[in-house]
Each structure stands twice: as structure tokens, then as C-alpha cells.
Amino acid sequence: MTEAERKSGAARSGVERAAILLLSLGEKEAAEVLKHLSAKDLQKVGTAMTQVSNVSRAEVIEVLSEFSSEVDGKTSLGLSNDDFIRNTLINALGEDKASGVIDRILLGRSSKGLEALKWMDAAAIAEIVRVEHPQIAAIILSYLEADQSADVIGLLPENMRSELLLRVATLDGVQPAALQELDHIMERQFSGSSQTRKSVLGGPKVVANIINLLEPRIESVVMQEITTADEQLGNRIQDLIFVFDNLLEVDDRGMQELLRQVSSDKLLLALKAADERLKDKIFKNMSQRAAEMLRDDLESRGPVRLSEVEAAQKEIVMIARKLAEEGSINLGNKGGGEAYV
To answer: What DSSP designation does 257 have?
Structure first.
């Protein structure tokens, strides 16, 4: 493989490499893999499959070789099928992302009704949640992806938001029978097990992921109300929320990758109220000329609304989380990614 081809392969995100692998498998085999993905992951991988281009033969061989190395020597012989599937999915997706897929596969649930929610507009889900019992609504919010739950929360009446997130945070799993019943109810609504372990839904981490994606004005109100209702739980959630100042924990390589994805206007706004240590870290990971220009712009820029600064910071945090999900950068434990050792 040439040096240019190696650089091209290294620049591919994890989603793009997954797309290359699936395109190499053939229609039938790729379909078997895709049907096990969540709605959000399916959309990301599907989009990547339509957009990936300029893939050399050597790059395809490299992707296939890496995949082969990952699974080489891994077999279900001498290992229960459940353990094999669980370990493989955790290695492939990480603990948090894999848990939902593992539940659907190992507990034998199709989740047709609940799964359909993931394809619905947030406004339509909000209408369903608005009239459901709060505990049912909490289960629904736990089952959705964090960004979808955040959109739904933003559309609910203010007096419902904190109560529902409190219920999500204190949700201690759901018995399969109860989840299956809810699934059937949802399926009947949209169309006009003997297992004893609980499905892993809810908890402080789920709420932290949702709050990370709320608008700043909603986030501050919700966190204040949660902490007032349960100070210990509020502190646990706050410890898990990834905010702009937590970018200090990103290493230099990750910071440089993040800065490539952020517009100069958004960065300028975000730094207006940033910690001095974070400013220094960002300047350090820019070219000397770019850093000097940014410093000059910060000094000459007049006062701006705090809401604009918070919105810019939130947008940069969302870009950082997206890059972390793709495996391009590591945010540390608060970002939900696996720490490096």
C-alpha cells in the first residue's frame, strides 16, 4: 500500500470504515448486519454507505484485514453463545451502546412498538408521553437515544420535565414482562418471557446524556429542580454531564481534530466566557498565526449575550461528542467513552 493510501485509510472515521466493510460483504450479508442496528446507528451507517467514495482496493483490503484480526481466534466453541455475543458487541460498540442491542438480542424481544418510536418525530412522541403515566413516560425516554429524548423533553410542559428526568435517573431496570407489555401497548397504538433479569434502562448516566443535549436555558432549570428534589442524585448527574470546560480533558491530538470541525465564528463566541486554562489549551493546539488572530478577535469583540455564548459552547460540545462516538477523539469518562491506559 502506498503512503497516500495509508493516509487515506487513517483519515476514515469509524462509521466510514464500517460502511466500507458492509459494502464489501454484499447485499444479503450486509442486510443481516444492518437489521441488528438501532435506528440512529442504522441512519449513520446508511448515510456513510451512500457517501463513501474514492475507496482504493488496498484500503478495502486493509479494512477487511483489520476486521479479520478483530475476530480471529474468537469462536463460540467452549464459550456460551450468550457470552460470545455479549463480549463481541461490547468490544465492537462499547458498554453503553451495546447494552440496548444485547437486550434486544439475548432477551429475545423484537420491541416492534418501542422501536417504532425511534423513527417518529419528536413532536409526535411528546404527544404520546404527555398523556402517559409518568413512569411509562420515563421508560420511553430511557429507551430512546439521548438526542431524541432531549428533543422530546424540550417540547414538554415545564412542569413535566424535571419530574420525568428524576424518574429516569431513579429507574432501576425494567422486568422483561413489563417491557414486553409496554411494547405490545405501543404496537397496538401505532397499528389502530420467562427471563428474570432486568433490562438496563434509565439511571443517572442516561439523564446526563439527555441533559447534555438540552438547550442551556432548559438545562439549568431542570438541573436546579432535580437537585432541589434530590441533592445527592443531582450531584451524581452533574458529575456525569460533559460541559464545555471539560474539553480541558481532551488530549492535544483530539483537540486538534475538534478544532478542524469547529467554525472560527462559533469558537470565538464560545471562548468569550471560557476558562483561561481552556483558552490556553486551544491556543496551544492552533498555528501561531491562527492563535494570534483569535486572541486579537477576542480582545476587539464587544459584549455578546450570554445565551449566544452558551449556545456556541453547547454546539461545540455536541461536535466533540459526535467525534467521540465515531472514535476520532476521546472525551474521558464524562464523555461516555472508554479511557485509554
So the answer is: H
**Region 112-240: CATH code:** 1.10.220.30
For 128-156, letters b (16+ CB in 10 Å) and e give bbeeeeeebbbbbbbbbbbbbbbbbbebb
Same fold, 112-240 and 244-335: yes
- Asked whether the predicted pLDDT for residue 102 surpasses 70, the reply is no
Q: Cβ atoms within 10 A of the Cβ of 252, count?
A: 10
* pLDDT at residue 195 in the model: 37
Those residues with Cβ within 8 angstroms of residue 323's Cβ, 6 or more apart along the chain or in another chain: 254, 257, 258, 261, 329
Residues 205-242 pLDDT 10s: 888 888 877 877 788 888 888 888 888 888 888 877 77
Q: Which three cell numbers stand for residue 151?
A: 428533543
Domains of the chain by residue range: 1-73, 75-106, 112-240, 244-335
Instruction: Reply yes or no on whether the pLDDT at 64 is more than 80.
Output: no
Fold of 244-335: Annexin V; domain 1 (1.10.220)
Q: What share of the chain is helix, strand, coil (3-state, %, to 5)?
A: 70, 0, 25
DSSP state at residue 246: G
